[in-house]
Specification:
The protein is of the alpha/beta class and 294 residues long. The protein is built from twelve helices and nine strands. The model has no long low-confidence stretch (mean pLDDT 93). Bound molecules: S-adenosylmethionine (SAM).
Amino acid sequence: MLEEFSEEVRGALAQATQTLKNNQFKEPSIEAVSLVANALKLNKISLYLNYNKALSNSEQFAISKLLARRLNHEPLEYLTGYVNFMGLDFMIEPPVLIPRPETEVLVETLVEVARDKKNPIIFDIGTGCGAIGIASLKFLPNARVYASDIIDLRLARRNAIKLKVSERIRFLRGDLLHPFFEESCGKGKADFIVSNPPYIPSSEIPSLQPEIRFFESHTALDGGEDGLFFIRELIKTSVVKLKKSGMLLLEISPEQADTVKKEALKYFESVDFIKDFFGRTRVFLAKYPKLKKS
Ligand SMILES: C[S@@+](CC[C@H](N)C(=O)[O-])C[C@H]1O[C@@H](n2cnc3c(N)ncnc32)[C@H](O)[C@@H]1O
């Protein structure tokens, strides 16, 4: 393929690939194409279609600048400004968490259980760039989402507009379920509460790979001493905000499953787990909230 590019584009791709390879990046040629395309303000397909072009000084400079940032371990998605999640292109920018492939299992599970509901109401807690709520709406045409986060929600709002679901999603800023007690959200209760909360134990943050540790927000990652702070809070409080037949769906780390199950059975009648594509327990599902008699 490389021989089909102009000499200059070919040279830039070969140099970027080699430099990334020398620095132990795992997919040097794939990353090089993304970096060069982005520096030339093209998507990858347009790069292939415009391969036969000379590079200006400013284009060469843009390529070197992006390559230097990548060598500094800035995530590729922050450099290109896009991440593909559930087949949809989301805009992304630092330090908002880059949606991960394993979170697609959470969305797929939600879509599966919500498909037969007539007009499901979904609360997406810790929405970040809006990935879970927005992707769910694309697959559930009659659903409505209320998406919250403690961080600024402008990026999530822009994604909702870009992906044409803004009429069915409302954004609320605040701590976990607190905004849902303050504002009226439909009848106030959800059919589904879904979240990929921060769940990494604080002590593990310093050993995460540099892409994550130095560039993504620790607010999106740090789940407290045992990683379960937000999970416990959500299990406890969601009972009050779920309809009788409601369900809580959370992304978890596989080793948290036993503790999560024990905790959840205090508040829900039934719990279940779904594995990710590597066979690791990844999604936690709790049904039938135990309602305290007042
Ligand atoms: C692991 S990220 C998930 C982001 C996005 N939902 C996804 O799956 O790509 C966790 C998210 O929870 C948010 N968050 C952290 N603490 C929060 C809190 N107290 N209340 C609401 N959201 C919080 C973070 O800002 C971050 O966006």
